[in-house]
Amino acid sequence: MDIKQLKFLVALDETRHFGQAASRCHVTQPTLSMRLRNLERELELPLVNRGQRFEGFTEPGERVLAWARSVLAAYEGLQAEAAACRGSLVGTLRLGVVPLSSFDPLPLLRRLHDKHPTLRFELCALSSEQILEQLASNRLDLGVSFLDRLNAEHFESLPLQDTRMGLLYDQRHFDFGDSPLSWQALVELPLALLSSGMHFRQSIDHGFRSRGLAPTPLLQTDAVHQLLQAVHGGFCCAIMPLHGGLAALTEHLRLQPIEQAQTLAPLGLIMRRSAPRSALAQACFEEGRALLGQVPT
């Protein structure tokens, strides 16, 4: 058994396709299949359900896959730890961010890249639950998520500024003057909102419901880019983070403040507390602390 076999196994899980997994790992499909069969023979377990195409993992395969992820995380952590001891950071920082976060990760990534030019970055848009789950299983290094359900025994966090909300619209199609908008004024507008159940949407629903209002959204979606496309096309307006930088995407977009509108829970930069925690995650978390000007407690 070697690290490459475990990488092949994880790549197959992430792509759910033999050819795509082989391409990701820069090997031929027959090579990947042969190495996985060798792993099955060594462990004396069937790991993969095979038919005309990939059909998932066997029950033992799912259990081995979980161990493979842990071993790879430890291996990558060892490499990062050794590099940190040499005074540099290597590898890929995996950062999960909730949709419509008011936190712009680019200043942090730019700061890290300036200090460590070989460092690479992987950004994922995930729900709060997915971020905590993937931090716990070492599939993410850091997360930007809401703190209302955070277990402080298992995760360390840096609180970020409150997320205020505004109305995003295209000035070629709408004009609301300069004053902050009331929730009552929003009810009559053609609104596009994130799908029900998403954290940012829950704060929007609370804003309306606490005032006895019940809007009927023109469009609901779980994809932020579809919201932006609909707004830019003049089809509707959308409630978005006020300081998320969205209004700067084109000269026609504008974000107008909404009175007494902010998310129910604060955002935070989050890292797992327990081992194995890589030197890469720790160093990037401390860079985030320095960027935010926060003093360790």
Spell out the blueprint of helices and strands.
Elements: H1 3-15, H2 18-24, H3 29-43, E1 48-50, E2 54-57, H4 59-85, E3 92-97, H5 106-115, E4 120-125, H6 128-136, E5 142-146, E6 155-159, E7 164-170, H7 183-187, E8 191-194, H8 199-209, E9 219-221, H9 224-232, E10 237-241, E11 253-262, E12 267-272, H10 279-292
Parallel strand pairs: 3-4, 3-5, 8-9, 8-10
Antiparallel strand pairs: 1-2, 5-12, 6-12, 7-10, 7-11
Put the structure in a nutshell.
The chain has about 300 residues and is an alpha/beta fold. It is about 40% helix and about 20% strand.
Description of the structure:
The protein is α/β, with parallel strands linked by helices and 297 residues long. It folds into 3 domains: 3-71, Arc Repressor Mutant, subunit A, CATH 1.10.10.10; 88-161 and 266-292, 3-Layer(aba) Sandwich (D-Maltodextrin-Binding Protein, domain 2), CATH 3.40.190.10; 164-262, D-Maltodextrin-Binding Protein, domain 2, CATH 3.40.190.290. The chain contains 10 helices and 12 strands. The protein has helices at residues 3-15, 18-24, 29-43, 59-85, 106-115, 128-136, 183-187, 199-209, 224-232, 279-292; strands at 48-50, 54-57, 92-97, 120-125, 142-146, 155-159, 164-170, 191-194, 219-221, 237-241, 253-262, 267-272. The strands form 3 sheets. It has a 5-stranded mixed beta sheet. Strand 3, helix 5 (106-115) and strand 4 (120-125) form a beta-alpha-beta unit. The longest helix has 27 residues, at 59-85. The two termini are 43 Å apart.
